[in-house]
Amino acid sequence: MSKQSNKTVQIYTDGACKGNPGVGGWGALLRYGSVEKELCGGAELTTNNRMELQAVIEGIKALKNRCTVEVYTDSVYVQKGVTEWLVNWKARGWKTADKKPVKNDDLWRELDALLPTQDLSWHWVKGHAEHVENERADELANRGVQMIKDKEPS
C-alpha cells in the first residue's frame, strides 16, 4: 500500500448477514496516518445491503472534522449507488428507473445527507481477495453479527 497523506482518512467498510434477511453486522476501519479506529455493530433482522450501507454511514459519522475521505467498499451496490444511481433516484423522487421505490431509501437518504459534510472519493475493492483492510472490515462486520447473537436469549 502506498504511503498516505496524514490529511486523508481512509475508511474500509464491510457488511455481513447470516441469512438474507437475517442477523447482520457492519464494520468500518478508519485510518488517519498511523492512527486507526475500529467500529462495528449489527441488527437482528436485516440484509447484507443494509449492513454495507450502515458501515459507510457509521464510518462517515465518526469523523469529527471535515476532511478528505477515501471510502473503500467491496459492495458494488454501495459504490455504484453513491456514484451513479443516487442522483437519478433523487431526481425521480426516490424511485428506480422502473418507477419502483428505492430499496433501503432510509439509509440512502441518511448517507445522502452526509455526503456534503466530507470530501469523499469512492473505491471498490474485490471482497475476500486478501485485501488486508477489507479482511479487517469483514472481521469487524462478523464481530457485529456476534454482538447481536450474544444478546439473543438462549
Automatic annotation (TrEMBL):
**PANTHER family per the record?**
RIBONUCLEASE H1 (PTHR10642)
Q: Which residues bind Mg(2+) 2?
A: 14, 138
- State its cofactor: Mg(2+)
Per its UniProt record, what CDD domains does this chain match? RNase_HI_prokaryote_like (cd09278)
Cofactor: record remark: Binds 1 Mg(2+) ion per subunit. May bind a second metal ion at a regulatory site, or after substrate binding.
| Catalytically driven reaction(s) | Endonucleolytic cleavage to 5'-phosphomonoester
Query: What is the E.C. number?
Result: 3.1.26.4
Does the record's keyword annotation contain Cytoplasm? yes
User: What is known about its subunit structure?
Assistant: Monomer.
Pfam family example for this protein? RNase_H
One GO cellular component term noted in the UniProt record for this chain: cytoplasm
Name any Gene Ontology BP term. Answer: DNA replication, removal of RNA primer
Query: So where does Mg(2+) 1 get bound?
Result: 14, 52, 74
Q: Name the keywords, alphabetized.
A: Cytoplasm, Endonuclease, Hydrolase, Magnesium, Metal-binding, Nuclease
GO MF terms listed in the record are: magnesium ion binding; nucleic acid binding; RNA-DNA hybrid ribonuclease activity
Q: Which organism is it from?
A: Formosimonas limnophila
| Chief localisation class | cytoplasm
> What is the gene name?
rnhA
Per the record, the similarity remark reads:
Belongs to the RNase H family.
Sum up the protein's function in the record's words. Answer: Endonuclease that specifically degrades the RNA of RNA-DNA hybrids.
Subcellular localization, as worded in the UniProt entry? Cytoplasm
Does the entry feature the keyword Oxidoreductase, yes or no? no
In Swiss-Prot or TrEMBL terms, this protein is called Ribonuclease H
- Annotated RNase H type-1 domain ranges read 5-146
